[in-house]
């Protein structure tokens, strides 16, 4: 019998092989990265989650397709894709004559409903709209030439001019921001209620349609709130008890209050503009015991929570595509703008289950 010889594979070669194998699979994520967004948008537009919810329980494919007026074989493939990603749950059902599935809601599918308290539908519809997708095609031109801004290059106006001139897009944008507020503000109140202690009046700078302040005044009955935004946004804002809507320009003046709240606004602007906005917030609050509550992402260079870090880095890319100079900031970058705006001191607190932090700045 001949001797069997076993070659020893050097560790480095093994590692390279495994990296190669991972790359071969991982690259598909990037080739078809858009598919998840497109199919989820399709599910929202069809109203699949609403149909199951209105039914009061799981539905078979033929029940969903007849309710929605869809082609059953195409819908079957959509449902197979969505259940594979745990967006809906497929429950095996069998009768004497057939085998199949019933489809049930999951926490993720609830987020695809337009009127659910956890709805993210408007945010998905905004990000998947042709208006917001088109600028991504100009990202490399912007980075290499460092001149053209993707959104402005595509639409000949910046995001704020575009929303002012296009009421439908403005409505979609404000509804999407309301989803963001519904997600983030209760989390801040839950995790950091002290932020609102001792405040009788609060102004939300760039508050959109007032969703954030409607949540705050409900949770903190002692607070009277001002929702401050551009005229065309305020014109469409619904009436909210104990919330006064005020139109204006945050670069000129912010309405006076005991404290200012500013969420997902500063990341739209470059440092010089941020400093200007923060100075206007500082002027709006009392010198001795006022505070500005900044709800924003902090990019953690070290990154100890990979999933959240990934979302924060994606948001930074979104800022690049949709604003002229906007960016998500590291703690060092926040330190710079807050100090340059004349604040004496500040605290930073991460908010559980959200990508946001609450930075409290004191004049
Ligand atoms: C990204 S949205 C954030 C909305 C809201 N704070 C939230 O987090 O859901 C930015 C907001 O800033 C408002 N904004 C932009 N420029 C402004 C200005 N010069 N003065 C006041 N608000 C402005 C926009 O209309 C928009 O509502």
TrEMBL record:
Organism of this sequence: Lupinus luteus (European yellow lupine)
Protein name: Uncharacterized protein
Database matches in PROSITE patterns: SAM_OMT_II
SUPFAM superfamilies: S-adenosyl-L-methionine-dependent methyltransferases, Winged helix' DNA-binding domain
BP terms from Gene Ontology: methylation
Active site per database record: 267 (proton acceptor)
Claim: Transferase is one of the keywords in the record: yes
InterPro entries the UniProt entry points to: COMT-like (IPR016461), COMT_C (IPR001077), COMT_dimerisation (IPR012967), SAM-dependent_MTases_sf (IPR029063), WH-like_DNA-bd_sf (IPR036388), WH_DNA-bd_sf (IPR036390)
Pfam families named among the record's database cross-references: Dimerisation, Methyltransf_2
Transmembrane segments: none
């Amino acid at each position: 019998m001949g001797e069997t010889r076993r070659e020893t594979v050097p560790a480095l070669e093994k590692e390279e092989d495994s990296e190669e194998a991972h790359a071969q699979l991982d690259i598909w994520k990037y080739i078809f990265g858009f598919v998840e967004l497109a199919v989820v948008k399709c599910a929202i537009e069809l109203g699949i989650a609403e149909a199951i919810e209105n039914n009061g329980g799981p539905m078979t494919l033929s029940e969903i397709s007849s309710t929605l007026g869809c082609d059953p074989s195409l819908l079957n493939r959509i449902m197979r894709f969505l259940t594979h990603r745990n967006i809906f749950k497929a429950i095996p059902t069998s009768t004497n004559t057939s085998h199949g599935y019933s489809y049930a809601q999951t926490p993720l599918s609830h987020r695809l409903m337009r009127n659910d308290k956890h709805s993210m539908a408007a945010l998905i519809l905004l990000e998947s709209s042709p208006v917001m997708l088109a600028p991504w095609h100009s990202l490399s031109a912007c980075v290499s030439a460092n001149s053209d801004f993707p959104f402005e290059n595509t639409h000949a106006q910046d995001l704020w001019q575009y929303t002012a001139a296009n009421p439908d897009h403005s409505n979609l944008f404000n509804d999407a921001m309301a989803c963001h507020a519904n997600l983030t503000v209760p989390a801040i109140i839950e995790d950091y209620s002290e932020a609102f202690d001792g405040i009788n009046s609060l102004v939300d700078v760039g508050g959109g349609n007032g969703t954030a302040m409607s949540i705050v005044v409900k949770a903190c009955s002692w607070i009277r709130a001002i929702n401050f935004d551009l005229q065309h946004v305020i014109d469409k804002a619904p009436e909210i008890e104990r919330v006064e809507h005020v139109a204006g320009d945050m670069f000129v003046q912010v309405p006076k209050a005991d404290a200012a709240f500013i969420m997902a606004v500063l990341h739209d602007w470059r440092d010089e503009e941020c400093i200007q906005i923060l100075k206007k917030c500082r002027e709006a609050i009392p010198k001795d015991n006022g505070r500005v509550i900044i709800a924003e992402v902090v990019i953690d260079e070290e990154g100890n929570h990979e999933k959240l870090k990934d979302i924060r880095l994606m948001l930074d890319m979104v800022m690049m595509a949709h604003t002229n100079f906007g960016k998500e900031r590291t703690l060092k970058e926040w330190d710079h703008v807050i100090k340059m705006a004349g604040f004496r001191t500040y605290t930073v607190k991460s908010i559980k289950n959200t990508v946001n932090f609450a930075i409290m700045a004191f004049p």
